[in-house]
Amino acid sequence: MKDLFGKAIYDYQTNNHPEDLITETSISEPDEMSVAYLFRTFMEMPEIEQKALTLSNGRILDVGCGAGSHSLYLQKEKLLEVISIDISAYAVEACRLRGLESVAVIDVMNLQEEKFDTILLLMNGTGIFGKLSKVSDYLQQLKSLLNPGGQILIDSSDIIYMFDEDEDGGKWIPTDSDYYGELTFTLHYKKETETPFDWLYLDYNTLQNAAIANGLKCELIQEGEHFDYLARLSLKS
User: Fold this and answer.
1) 144, 216 in Cβ contact below 8 A?
2) Does the residue 197 lie in any domain?
3) Residue 93: CATH number of its domain
4) Distance, CA of 41 to CA of 147 (rounded, Å)
5) Residue 26 lies in a domain
6) How many domains does the chain fold into?
7) Which stretches does DSSP call E strand in 64-205?
């Protein structure tokens, strides 16, 4: 991976001539994304993200922290202990420059001997699962990191709306994947192209079924304006 997403974040933070990211998926055309959006304040965030931050408590793990905007709010405004992780070295360095006190280049699947009261996976937090077949592995790992009474706050979207309808009102779903939310994602930045990677959008019912199968309770906290939602997973008592 060239870490173009992280480079864009770092360029913006250091004022190194940042440009828009160009994103495309296996089912969508290229689209521009302003890097400035990743540096948004609490008031600029979608309601789902605001709700997740409001519900956050105790010792917090921010998975895939990106530019660190969620962690910064929790650290500065709620005075909470936040551990922020990302697989991007550039993003992590930008977070340090922004003032995050505890941020590191770590894949959540490699995190061990740590416990948290709140685990955050936001901005389509299910994306890092990559494939439907990997959801259980990730949920078991996240479950192992929870303190008793802890919570996983995760958001995603049901992207069924992106597929065409047939005459009977059904959807034309490609048959080259196990689940319609499995996409291949490609980023372009400053005339470079990132290695394509798997990205997963999960509808709520599929997430709920996976959570139950892995010994977790699943609660729908809030629905957004565009087929998105926030869910809370917790240990079964």
Assistant:
1) no
2) no
3) 3.40.50.150
4) 29
5) no
6) 1
7) 82-86, 103-105, 116-121, 146-157, 182-189, 192-193, 197-200
pTM above 0.90, yes or no: yes
What is the token pair recorded at 44? 């600029």
How many alpha carbons lie under 13 Å from residue 73 in its C-beta half-sphere?
Answer: 22
Q: Which of 125, 145, 150 is nearest to 135 (CA)?
A: 125
pLDDT tens-digit series, residues 90-138: 999 999 999 999 999 999 999 999 999 999 999 999 999 999 999 999 9
Whether the Cβ atoms of residue 22 and residue 8 lie closer than 8 Å to each other? no
Region of residue 34 (left: phi > 0; alpha: psi -120 to 50; beta: else): beta
Domain carrying residue 216: 44-158+171-183+203-235
Sign of dihedral through CA atoms 154, 151, 6, 18? positive
Pinpoint the alpha helices (H) of the chain. 4-13, 47-55, 69-76, 89-98, 135-144, 204-213
User: Are 66 and 123 contacting, i.e. CB atoms less than 8 angstroms apart?
Assistant: yes
- Is 221 inside any structural domain? yes
* Residue 7 domain flag: no
- What distance in Å separates the CA atoms of residue 213 and residue 45, rounded to the nearest whole number? 32
pLDDT per residue as tens digits for the range 66-75: 999 999 999 9
